[in-house]
Amino acid sequence: MPVSDTTPRRNQSRALCDLTTAVKTAALDRAVELLDQVGGIPRELLDGKHHPCPRCRGTDRFRLIDADRGAVLCNQCFREKNGDWIAAVMWMHGWSFSDAVRAAAEYLGVDPGKNGPSPQRDIIAAVCADKRMPEAAFRMFGAEPAMHGKLPVARVPVYNQTGKQHSYFDLPVGKKGWWKAGTGSTGMFFPGQLPKPGETWCVAEGVKDPAALVGLGYLAAGMPNSKLNAKYARLFTGCHVVLVHDLDKAGLNGTQGNGGQLVGIAASVRVARLPGEIVEIHGDDVRDVLSKPAGEQSVRQAIEDAAEWTPAASGSTAQRRAVEVSFEEATVASIVIGQLGQLGWSGDDGDDGDDGDDGDDAQPRGRIYQRTGQLVHVTQAVSTPTCGIVLPEHMLRIRPLPAPILRERITSAVVLVKPLTSDDDEVMKRLRPAHWLVNAIHQRGEYPPCIRSLAGVVRCPTLRPDGSVIQVAGYDDATGLLYVPDGKYPEIPDRPSRDDARRAADELLDVVADFPFVGVSQSVWLSLVLTLVARPAIAGPCPLFAFDANTPASGKSLLCDVAAVVAYGDRMPRKAWVRDDEEMRKVITSVALEAIPVVLFDNVSSVLGSSSLDAALTGTTWTDRILGKSKTTGVLPLTTVWAVTGNNLVIGGDTPRRTLFCRLESAEEHPEERQGFTHPDLVAWVRKNRHPLAVAAVMILRGYIVAGRPDMQLAPWGSYEAWSALIRQAIVWVDVHDPGDTRTNGSDADRSTEVLRLLLDGIVEVDPGDGVTAVEIERVLSRQFGPDDVDQFPALRAAVAEMCSGRPTARSIGYRLRSYLGRVCGGRRLARNEGHGRVRRWSVEQVGGGKGASVAATTPETSSPSSPSSPVRRVRGVL
Hints:
By secondary structure, this protein is of the alpha/beta class.
C-alpha cells in the first residue's frame, strides 16, 4: 500500500488516542456525571443498588459496580463485567468507541483538534483536591505533573538514606499511588529540605499527611508506610522528632518500633496522640482530624502535648530493633542479648505496677532470665516429673531455656537484617536467626545484668532478708525473686503488734487442731509453714521436717500438703525415698537446677539417711555434673525445704541432728474412718482461705522483726543459726512452744545412736580389761550354743548384726568400728589402743577418763559381761 494512503489514517488514530487521554483526564471524579449526562442513565439508578436495566428493562438486574471508573453491570445484557464509563456509554447508545469519546469531549469542553493530552484543569490541583492536601505545601515536596502510562499523575521525589533522590511516587486522582517500578516502597518524603540537628520534625505516614502538617507550618517528613527503616533514622540525627501516627493498630505498633529506631539518634523522640479512637484498620489520620470541627486546633494541641516515647508494653513485637548481621559475630551476639534482656518487660521495674491482683500476668510469657550462667525461663509444671519428683499441675518451675525456644525469643526481640545493594539504593533483607548466633548466645555461660538473675518464684507475700515484705507482683530487684500471686492478698501492715502476731499464730494453729499431735509437735508444723513462706529471708540452711506416726492414715502427708497449700497454693511435690546415695545426689541436683521450693519424701519405710541429703541439709549451695552432659551445673543456690513422712521412722547416719520431729499418735485402729472433723476436706478449705492464712504467717515474722528481734534465750542449734534466729525465735515470741524441743523426740528414731549404745554395751561384755580386737569379736560371735546355753553377749551380737550385712568378718567388724571411734553416747565413747605389732584393741571409756579407765571396772552392776540379764537398748529391726 502506498505510504501516502496510510499517513492520514495513522494521524487519525494518533489524534483519537490523544483525544481519549485528554477526555479521561478531564473526566477524573466525574464518571457518574458522564453516565448521566452523556450515557443517558438516570442518576437515581447509579447508587450501587439493584435497579431495572435502562436498556433491556429487566427488573432488578442493573447496578453500578465501580463509581470511580463508571463501570455498570446488567445480568442480562453483559456476559462479563463492564470496563469503564466509556464502555457503558457505548453499550447504552450502541455507539462506537470514537463516537462515545467525541460525545464526552463535547460535553467536557475538550478541543478535539488540539494535539496532545492537555486537560482543562491542572493535575496537581486535582490531586490536592482529591486527597485533601494544601496545594502549596504539596508542591514543596517537589510534586510535578507526569504521565503514568496514559494516566496523568502528580509525581513526588523519594529520597534514600543519604538524602539523595533515588526514585519517585505517582499520585493519581481517585486511586492509590504507585512507586517507581522495580524500587519497592522504600525511601522518605521531604519538603524541599533535609533535617538538621536542633530542628523539630514531625514524621507521619505517606506524603499526604506530611503535606497537611507542612500546611500548618511544621517541618514534616513522610514514610512509605507505618514503619521507619533503621537506615533512614540516621537522617534525623540530633533532631527533635514528633511521631504522628494514624489511629489504628498498624499506626500504633509502627510508632513503637519507629521510636526504638530513633532513640539514641534523635535528640528526643515524642509521640503525638491525635484525638479519636484506636481501631483495628483504616483509622483516622491527620487529614481526617483536620476535616472535623476545630480540627486544626486538635492537631496542634496533639503535637504540643506529645509525650516522650517509651518502649511498648511487655510482649509487643513493635519495639523490635533492626540488627545488621556482620562478620563481627561477638558484637552482633551482644546486641541481641541486650535486646533479649528487654523482652517482656515494661517500664524499668519489670512488673505491671498494680496492687498484686493480676495472677500469672506478673509472669508474662517471653521473659528470659539467667541462673548460674545459664539462660532459663519460667514455665508451668507439666506431666513429666523431674527426676521422679511428682509436681503439682499448676506449679511454676524454672527450666533451662532450650535452643529452639531461644531462637523464637530472638525473632521476638530483634529483626535481623542484611544490606543488599540495588542500583543506587540499599535494601535491607530480613534474615532468620543463624545457627551460629543461637549457639553463641545459648552457650555463652556469662550474661550481662540486662538478663535478670532469677533466684526463685514465690506465690504469696514473703520477706526479704532485711525484713521488708514483698507485696507487689513481678520481679523483685532486691532479691531476684519473681512474685506471681494467684489472687488478691490482704495488705500486711508495716508494723504489726505482738498481739496481732499472736492472733495470727492462733489462726494458723486452728487449721490443724484436729490432728493427734504428741507433746509440742504442733509447733513443728507451724515452723514448717513459716519456713515455706519466708524461705528467702533465711540466710542459711533449714532443717529436715520429719512427720512420724504410730499408724498409717494418721495425717502425716496431709499436714505437709496443708502447709504447702498455704505457701504455694498446691500440694507438696513428692518423691519416693531412694536408698542409693548416687540417686539421691541426682535428685538434689535436679531440684537445685529448677529451684523447686519444697520436696516431700513420702511414706519412708526403710532407714532414713543419706550423705548427699545430709550435705544438702547443712549447705546453701550445690554443684554437680548435669545428668547426661559433660559439664557441671556451676554453683547453684540451694534453698529447698525438705520433709519426710513415715510410720515409726528409723533415721541413721548424721541425719538425726539435722531433723525436727513431729509425732502423731492416733488411738484409732482405722484412723482413715474417723469422722467429726472441723473441716472434712481440709485441703480444699485451706486452698479457699489460703490468702489470709499466708498473710498471717508473714505477719508473725514481720511483727517479730519490727519488735527488734528480741532474744528468747533458746538453746543453740549448730548449722541452723539463721533459721533459729528467725523462725524459732518468732514462734516462741508469740507464746508457742519451741519446735527445737522436739529434737529429743527423735532419739528413738536415731538408728546410729541405738547401734552405738549396743556396741558400747557389747564391747564391755567381752573386754577382759585391756581391750578386745576385731578378730576376738569375730571368734566370740562365731561360737555355737546348744539349746540350753545362754548367749552371754546379746548386746554385742545385736550391734554387729546392725553394723554388718551378711556374715560378719574381722575385717568388716574393724571397718565398722572405726566409723564409731570417739563418738560420745551416754557419757561414754569407743576408744582404740595400738597394741603389740600395731594390733588395734577396742575398749570403752568414760568421757574425761584415762584410756585405761574401762567402763567395765566402773559400772559392774550394769555392764558386767557375767550379767546376761543386763538391760540392753534394742533397735526396731536388724538389717
